[in-house]
Design goal:
Blueprint (H helix, E strand, L loop, with lengths): L5 E4 L6 E4 L11 H11 L1 E5 L5 H10 L1 E5 L13 E2 L7 E4 L11 E8 L7 E5 H7 L2 H9 L2 E7 L1 H11 L11 H6 L6 E6 L5 E7 L2 E3 L6 E3 L14 E4 L7 H13 L1 E4 L6 E5 L3 E5 L8 E9 L1 H15 L1
Parallel strand pairs: 2-3
Antiparallel strand pairs: 1-2, 3-16, 4-18, 5-18, 6-17, 7-16, 7-18, 8-15, 8-17, 9-11, 9-14, 10-11, 12-13
Helix pairs in contact: 1-8, 3-7
Length: about 325
Amino acid sequence: MLSELTRTRLAEGAGTIVSAGPSRDLASVDGVDLVELLAEHGCVVLRGFDTDPERFSTLVRSVSSRITIDPARRFAGGDVAQKIEAGLVPQGLHVENGATPWVPDLVWFYCERPATVGSQTTVCDGAAVWERLSGRTRSRFLDQRISFARAMPEERWTSLVWRLLDGRRPQGEVTFDDLLEVTDDDVDVKYQLLPDGAVHYTYFVHAARPTLLGGDVAFANSILTPSVNYEPPVIEFEDGTPLDAMLMREILEATALETDDVDWEAGDVALVDNSRMMHGRRKIRDVHRSLFNAQSYLLPDIVDRVRHRRHRAAA
């Protein structure tokens, strides 16, 4: 069990590192134990396990009901892990796909080759950020949702929809109706099909909301979103009010105080609660760094079992 292995704090904030000997296969990791640790810490790094892209993909599948993708990234041999290729500049804090209507529950990372200098992934606990924000700011985000609006090229949205359809038809036959089908009923989004085949969407979401596993309110969103491979979104409050400079300054100051670095080691696997934690990246100073990413939705049965364990432990 993971609880029997050595655990250390990731940094000053949330997150934990679980260390094992190199003879311990990643397949030995129990999915419920892993997600239970995730519920407690928000981010779990598995270090020292015998890993490779195939074992990483198997672990992702073991706890996931659906695996989704970033259509701007290429796969690493299979159909789960995608190579992270987003330029060399720093990336602001965000939740994975948080500026789109397709926000996964989980974000996964696999480090094939760590950087020799800098280039760290950053993580930020949105629950702790929420506590740092002023009462006035919290009220603004509770009273109103925010919106993200932009166009997505045809090849990008059809690639994503094809994946969410589990390949039930060729990508070239994906239609706008299929896009509507794979959009969850509880997601508030307005789509417009453009003449060139692109889709413009306006996506409405609360910037702060209860986490999937713990229930605490977390300020976890993509207001500070990077847009390396996409058109930058227009971000504003639902009523059309912009996020003013004073508000953005407070957000930047609060998130900076709760941001920690992940100093990768070869073979590391990390799991991040995308409903609680934001992540980003320092400037890439070693272009040979090799990091892979996956995105998925938790199996409902595992969510229920973890919630039951935590409720029983708290009783």
